[in-house]
Amino acid sequence: MFKKKFLFTFIFFLSCTTNFTLYEKKGFAKISNNNRIISSFPKGTLLKITNVKTKENKIISTDEMSKNLSARIIVLPSNIFKELKLNKNLPLIHLQTLRKNKIFIAKKAKIFEEEKRVNKKVKLEKINVLDLNKAKVAKDKIYLEFGPFYYRSYANQIFKVLNLKINDKKLISKDYKDKSYLLSIGPINNLKEFDRIYLKLGKIGLIGFNIKIQ
After folding, report:
1. Which residues of the chain have a pLDDT value below 50?
2. Is 202:187 a contact under the CB 8 Å cutoff?
């Protein structure tokens, strides 16, 4: 009974803290099969999509509304995937709603003739830079973080619920510091595994986590 009361309080707290006019969420995108932008928002909603890793962003308008997106927060055409330089294996994005009267499109900066002439005179030297990322063998993994919580007792209760609902207990870990108690699920190897865990968390209302790629 205590667990149910605690879980209800936790879900209520999450719903209160996310009930703003401005919607913001970090999650994964999915490639569209029909070249349409599909989200859980009404058709015509303005959204700002940001590639969390590269900070590339784009403002778009949704084409279709769907309540069955599950773990993926938006469906995007392949050309937007390319424009945002999203990794198809782990397309982590930050999604934000925008109001039409808050959007301002800056005019292209004018290039003066003098600047053009100077630019033509400058000689550029080709520089070879060693790409250290090529030496990186390990693939990126997904981690879901809960917290940090101010009270240790809250963190312990969430930890018990996660252990009860997630089959693989080795995935769940603690990072406890004074008045900063953090829980995490991971490493999650791919989006298929992420979808499976998200479905389990969704059934108990524990979807207020932060996603990290490491």
Report:
1. 2, 5, 8-9, 11-21, 102-138
2. no
State pLDDT tens for residues 29-86.
999 988 999 999 999 999 999 999 999 999 999 999 988 877 899 999 999 999 999 9
pLDDT at 167: 78
Residue 65 burial by Cβ neighbours in a 10 Å radius (0-12, 13-18, 19+): middle
One-letter amino acid identity for 196? R
Domains and CATH numbers, the chain: 21-100 (2.40.40.10), 142-213 (3.30.70)
Residues 6+ apart with CB under 8 A from 93: 26, 27, 28, 29, 49, 50, 51, 52, 73, 74, 84, 86
3-state helix, strand and coil shares in percent for the chain, rounded to the nearest 5: 30, 30, 40
For residue 184, list its beta bridge partners: 145, 173
- Euclidean distance between CA atoms 26 and 93, whole angstroms: 6
How many Å apart are CA 86 and CA 210, to the nearest integer?
A: 19
